[in-house]
Amino acid sequence: MPGQPAQYQNEIYLHGLADQVPPFTTDATLVESVARERMAPGPFGYVSGGAGCGDTMRANRAAFGRWRIVPRMLTDATTRDVATTVLGTPMAAPVLLAPVGVQSIVHPDGELATARAAAALGVPMVLSTASSYPLEEVADANGAGQRWFQLYWPNEPEVCASLLHRAKLAGYSALVVTLDTWTLAWRPRDLDQAYLPFLRGTGVANAFTDPAFLAGLAKPPEEDQAMAVLRWVSMFTGQDKRWDQLPFLREHWDGPIVLKGIQHVDDARRAADAGMDGIVVSNHGGRQVDGAIGALEVLPEIVSAVGDRLTVLFDSGVRTGADLLKALALGASAVLLGRPYVYGLALAGEDGVRHAVRSLLAEFDLTLGLSGHRTPADLTPESLRHA
Ligand SMILES: Cc1cc2nc3c(=O)[nH]c(=O)nc-3n(C[C@H](O)[C@H](O)[C@H](O)COP(=O)(O)O)c2cc1C
Ligand SMILES: CCCCC(=O)C(=O)O
């Protein structure tokens, strides 16, 4: 991404939104309503929906509202520098694209478009185990970009080892192990529409290209697709994992390991005790436990308990530049963007992802400067007040 992120603002003022970029809003809090009009109901419900009545999704947003930025004046913030390095990965801004499975349900190019956009933006993408393209093809599309691999930890060790081996060979530099989704929550929007992408054969690309997975099938997927899909899905269902099994992942992965879905300070301590390199404080965008605490609420206590022992990342509910600033001020090293870039993908493919992320980064850059900060490292809890 050449120059300051906020140059995007000038491009838009000078040339107009429709000339430069896909003609949809630069406001990530509104893009969902644009997407609702243009997306098919099944995929829209799947992406936008959460667990139960959506209480946790609302709590995620409300938590941001309770922290307020307190701007400082006459500071040196004319030129900002938002680039950073997290767990050895350089990034143009403290942002990664969150692992989101089954992206071909919103756009035929799916993760390939996301991978190209991420490379152009200079931000890493985290590829889901449940991607709609094989991890090697996504790596090719990402090219010289930065990429991490998200693991849904299969209950067959050979398949797990095989996926990790493939991810390493394909240049994924860090591993994100998602702990909060060992079964899908009660999701009324998907239940009402009987819409589950996996059972329709999406999100199985990494299985159907995996030698260890294929070796365990009685019949190849071409002969019995339904059985193969069920086997893949059942491989991730069930809570058979415990803290003492983390060394298995270390044996099979020599890069950084990050545990995603941490919400309790004691779990954060256990991750640090287990020698993990990082955690993502996250409630999966409110898609798993309805009635849960807003993810940002638990960030400060987790940072103060383990921030000196591992890297703390954050997601769930980030929609604006101010949200990003707040999460960083409360101690996150970087933030994972979820639904906003997926709506960008749905609305305009690769260009849509770029537009959605550039808009958010431009807003972040301007908010950072106007509140008196030059770099993300200048942000501290003192930049905020809890209201
Ligand atoms: C449609 C969709 C699919 C997702 N798939 C995955 C996944 O495959 N693996 C994973 O770890 N998280 C997955 N997530 C969760 C995201 O990584 C992230 O935690 C969440 O989107 C953050 O919340 P936000 O979208 O409200 O910002 C998914 C989220 C959405 C919206
Ligand atoms: C096996 C679940 C993958 C998708 C996912 O994480 C979600 O829908 O939230």
Automatic annotation (TrEMBL):
Cofactor(s) this protein requires: FMN
Keywords tagged on the record: Flavoprotein, FMN, Isomerase, Oxidoreductase
Residue ranges of every copy of the FMN hydroxy acid dehydrogenase domain listed in the record: 20-387
Tree of life domain: Bacteria
Gene3D superfamilies: Aldolase class I
InterPro entries: Aldolase_TIM, Alpha-hydoxy_acid_DH_FMN, FMN-dep_DH, FMN_HAD, FMN_hydac_DH_AS, LMO_FMN
Claim: Oxidoreductase is one of the keywords in the record: yes
Annotated GO MF terms: FMN binding; isomerase activity; oxidoreductase activity
Residues involved in FMN binding: P99, V100, G101, S128, Q150, T178, S282, D315, S316, G317, V318, R319, G338, R339
Family membership: Belongs to the FMN-dependent alpha-hydroxy acid dehydrogenase family.
Name of this protein: FMN-dependent dehydrogenase, includes L-lactate dehydrogenase and type II isopentenyl diphosphate isomerase
Catalytic-site annotation from UniProt: H284 (proton acceptor)
PROSITE patterns, per database record: FMN_HYDROXY_ACID_DH_1, FMN_HYDROXY_ACID_DH_2
Amino acids binding glyoxylate: Y46, Y152, R187, K260, H284, R287
Keyword Transmembrane listed: no
